[in-house]
Input
Amino acid sequence: MPSRPATRSRISSRRRATSPRRAVTQAALAARILTWLRQQDLKPGDHVPERLATEEFHVSRTPVRAALALLTEQGLLERHDQRGFFIADGFAAARGTVAAETPDSTLHDAILRDRFSKRLDAEVTAAHLTRRYRASRAIVLRVLGRLQKDGIVERALGQRWVFLPALDSLRSQEDSHRFRLILEPAAFLQPGFALDAKRARDLKSALAELAGQDARTLDLKRALETDIAFHEAMGDASNNRFLAEAIRRQSRLRRLATTSMQVPPARLIESCREHLAILEAVAAGELARAAELMREHLASSLRARPGFVNRGAPPMLRATMMGGAR
Amino acid sequence: MPSRPATRSRISSRRRATSPRRAVTQAALAARILTWLRQQDLKPGDHVPERLATEEFHVSRTPVRAALALLTEQGLLERHDQRGFFIADGFAAARGTVAAETPDSTLHDAILRDRFSKRLDAEVTAAHLTRRYRASRAIVLRVLGRLQKDGIVERALGQRWVFLPALDSLRSQEDSHRFRLILEPAAFLQPGFALDAKRARDLKSALAELAGQDARTLDLKRALETDIAFHEAMGDASNNRFLAEAIRRQSRLRRLATTSMQVPPARLIESCREHLAILEAVAAGELARAAELMREHLASSLRARPGFVNRGAPPMLRATMMGGAR
DNA sequence: GATTGTATTTTTGTGGTAGAAAATACGTCA
DNA sequence: TGACGTATTTTCTACCACAAAAATACAATC
Output
């Protein structure tokens, strides 16, 4: 087996007295409810009826109540007897997310890390992973399922799981960029394009803040998240669910590949300015111009990609040469 | 529960003496090997080494040998002692596929049918489905997983599975068409666009045959399959795996929705002619023209959509009406 | 009348085990 | 040497019982 010995963290499935399964899904739901609440225009004292979350997330009141109780513990909500949950004073201020470390996410990240660094082969079996990470079979299968949904692995007909060429290969990065170059400018031109007002405002302030920062002290993770949020918002605004979904898919891949593809910080800041220009065009109702700006923005990013144009052969030739073998 | 009583076919998981699980995956692999062999330029007498299929499908020799043996039984291959499998004389002639009826596919189709005709609610639980179809939980979960992969259902955080608006709603159909209008013309303009020669030939002959047929006696199922094969081939030729994948995703949805959306046969035949024109443009190396033809082709299909422009009732109302009877 | 609080019922996830299927090791033949 | 044939080992799936979580029913409150 070509797999080299590697980090062997124990990813346990045993129930510990302190954190049964509940804590995991509860936290996940709480996190989703929180981002959902943040998207709305809520003031301290506003009521948060359980029913709304129930309908939004297609779950019963039981887990919703548990999640809201969790948010109450964190001071984001307040609970009044017989009246329910209300937005707390600290709601707007608090920045932290409720992101929990789950056995699943631990394994998920470990697998991605080891795969990107080629410590994992392109073909693995579930049994291999259970041994390597000392995780229960159930967890391994769940994580593989999630990776499959994200287009990272594919299940073969037998008992192998195959890693697809991810964004770590130069070739896939180029494919991804060209794909986005097709998709994203088109979003603005869809009939019914409409950007949510609050969302536009939030994006604008986040982008403006980043745009003013120094390239040397930039929080790269936050910059990437803002970048992704911007692109997904444009997809959602397109009013076409397939387009939105396709853009979101690419976002997910980009987020995962962030470790291996390093964009220069200066480019990220430039990016923010371009995003702001696009938002302005949208606000002015000049959608055709927004589309054109988006095209230029993505083309710039494509050019800025490390190792793309700066090295050797020109784009067309390169593409053709690579076309041969696949 | 609004679900009305409905077809209750028993979908069994019990192993019958005659067909254990093996027969299913075996047949599935055999079918995939067959289409794979058909894509290659093979003559009777050509050797089919096990290793090639092994590498192509990421499975071990054991299932490959079983599948090849199955194809031998059907007279498509020949087996010579100590030398292996060879293309049989009847290989090119035989048209039939090895498509097997599995418990999974039965349930899969039943669920889709019942959902399209609104006999199933938009939110279901696995337990509900096991009762309704008298299927084992394992099968239900597998099928739900597949439907999820295809973007038909989504798993909620609790124990509900939510059907996404599929191509049965008029709105989604329009979204789908507009999405394809973005994607598919762009395929031709990707650097490295290259259509496999044999594939082009096969498509051309299939399309030519359909184009010459009478609208009244047209085999609708075959026409749809050819249509899909054409569009997927263009995606594959684009040399961009994300683009190809996105097109394939749409194809899968279209195939599933075929029962509920009825395209007039005359339009299908016209379609074939347009496909042929695109192939000619590609063959002549006029990719920009091919892209333009594709745009027109998809735009025509969008216009030809039943109930879009031509019919009376406004979209929302119609969609509701269609829900009633199937 | 709608929403919350509480209790009850239903559904799901997990772990262990037997048997089926896939992977693999090894000998043989062109 | 590389491909096939056969035997052995490993891995997976189905099934079962129990604990945990979600859904639901019903009473209480605004």
